[in-house]
Amino acid sequence: MKKAMTKSVALLAVATLGLSACAGSGSDTTSPKAGESSPAMSEKASEPAKTGEKVEIQYIHRLPDGKDMTPVQKIVDKWNAEHPNIQVKPTKFDGKANELITKLQQDVQAGSAACLAQVGYGEVPELFVKGMFEDVTAEVEKYKEPFADGAVALMTVGGKAVGLPQDVGPLIYMYNTAEFEKLGIKAPTTLDEFKAAAAKAAAQGKYIAAFTPDEAGYWLSAQAAAAGAAWYKAENDQWVVAANDDKSKVVADFWQENLDKKQVLVTPRWNESFDKALTGGQLIGHFAAAWEVGFALDVLDGTPYEGQWRVAQLPDFGAGMKTGPDGGSGVAVMKGCKHKAEAMEFNAWFNTQIEDLATQGLVVATKQAPKNPEKWLRQFGKQDVQSELAKAATAMNPDFVYAPGFSSVVTPMVEAATKAGAGSAKVADIFTAAQDASVKTLKAAGLPVANG
C-alpha cells in the first residue's frame, strides 16, 4: 500500500472493511464513506454481451490438477459446451500464492488482467484497497445462497462484494477414537473438557493436541474468531484493532495452561516431527484446518492406526458453536473485466460443481457437502467427514475478517509463538505481537488507527 493513497480512499478502506461482517447475514449495510468513489471499485457498469455475441472469460487459478483429480479444464469444458456464447479459458498458475498476487497487480496496471482470479481470503482486503477488484455486489446477491455466510463475508468488503468463495479452511478437531476409548475420554466439546482429557492423556504419554508455532498466524487468529473475536473494525473513520482483547485472551490462557502443565505436544506443523508423533501413536488429536483432512493421515496408511481417526467440531471457546478461518480462497472479478455479469454467472456455476472441486482436495465453501472420497472413508472409519466439514463451514464467525497487510502480521506472531513454545515467552505475547504489528502495518499503509 502506498502512502500516496488519498484521504478519501483511505477512509473508505477503513469504513467499508469494518462493515464487511454484515455481508455474512445478507445485510447491505453501508456508510457515507462506503458510497464515495474509489479506485477499489469500478463505477462503470458491466457490459452484457449483445444478443448472439460471443464472450470470452479468462480465469486464472492455482488448483493442483493432480492425479485422480477432475482437471479444471474438464470442468470448464462442460460449461463451454452448454454456453456457446460465454466461453471460459482457464489458466493454471504454477507459482506460489504471493507470486500470483504480484502477477495480478502487474496485469491490472497493464489493463490485461484475467476477468476471474483465485485469491486467498487474507489477501482480499489489501487488494480491495489497492483497487484491483470490480464491484459485483448485485451479482453476488443473486448467487450467494448456496455458500456459507462466513465464506461470503470473506469475499465482501463493506457490503461491496468482489466475488464468490471457493474453498474454506475452518478449524476442526481431529482425534483417534480408538486411543480415546482406551483412555476413557471423549472428543472435548468445551475447553474445560479438553484440559481434563489432555491431563489424563498426558499422564499416559499421549497428547490430544499439538501447539504448532509455525502455524500461529492463521491458526491462532482462527481460534480467536472461534472465541467470538473480531480483530478489525472501523469506528469514526478509523481502524480499531482488537487482536489482544478479552476473547483472544481466552485462547492465550487456554494454551498457556496446557503448555505449563506439559499436556500438549510442542512441534512445528510442517516438520517431520509432527508426522513421527502421529505414526508413533504419541499424538492422538489435532486442531486442524479443514483442508488438512485430505492428506494429514496419509502417513498412517498401512499402520495399526489406519481408520481410527474421526473429525469433530472445534471445542466451544466460549462463544457457542463457532469456528474461524484458517486458509481458503475465493474467485474474484478483477478490475477491468468488461463482462462482469457473464463472469459471475460462470463463477457461481463453477464453485457449485462440488463433486468435481472436491477431487481437487478442496473443502468447498457451499452449505451442501459433496460425497466422501474413498480414501477419506478408509482413513476415517467410514465417517461422513464432508458433512462434518460443511457444518464447520457454516459455523465460521462472519464478524472475523482480515485487514490490509495481514500477511505482515503473521511473521511476528510465528516468532512470538516459537518463543512461547520454548518457554521463553508467554502465549499472550503472540497476541500482543499481532496487535502491535497490525497497528504498525495499517499506519505504514497511510490508514488512520484509533488505538495505536
Please, could you describe this protein's structure?
There is one protein chain. The chain has 452 residues and is α/β, with parallel strands linked by helices. It has 2 domains: 7-168 and 328-370, D-Maltodextrin-Binding Protein, domain 2 (3-Layer(aba) Sandwich), CATH 3.40.190; 170-323 and 402-444, 3-Layer(aba) Sandwich (D-Maltodextrin-Binding Protein, domain 2), CATH 3.40.190. It is built from 17 helices and 13 strands. It has helices at 7-18, 72-82, 97-110, 124-129, 137-143, 149-154, 177-183, 191-202, 216-226, 246-260, 272-279, 340-350, 354-359, 374-379, 385-394, 407-422, 428-444, and strands at 55-61, 86-92, 116-120, 156-157, 160-161, 163-176, 210-211, 232-235, 238-241, 265-266, 285-289, 309-312, 325-333. Strands 1, 2, 3, 6, 11, 12 and 13 form a 7-stranded mixed β-sheet that branches. A two-stranded antiparallel ribbon has the order 4-5. The longest helix is centred in the last third of the chain and has 17 residues, at 428-444. The chain is globular and about 70 Å long. Mean pLDDT is 89; it is low at 1-46.
